[in-house]
What we know:
Radius of gyration: 16 Å
Amino acid sequence: MLKIGLTTCLLILTLSGVAGISNAADENGVIMHDGKVMILNKGQAEGALDHVMTMGNGTKVMPDGTVTMKAGQEMKMQNGTVITSDGHIMHGSHAVPMRKEEQ
Length: 103
């Protein structure tokens, strides 16, 4: 009985993690998930980013998670960070202020 309960609990946690990826954005963009930058298409993770992606506001996202704003500021994406196709940076459902990458 305990084994079934633990299995059910693990299944729920796994599915909620997948749901977090698919609901991360309602539009196109990218998300950092498990240390990989994934391409979002209509909120669905479709695969790893393998090229530099330029967003609508000039923000550039590199496959390693480095983000360069049009003005030249750089930051590193953290797990859960979403950058929408228009360049808005979010973590979960909250906007993230731009911070310089620590050297």
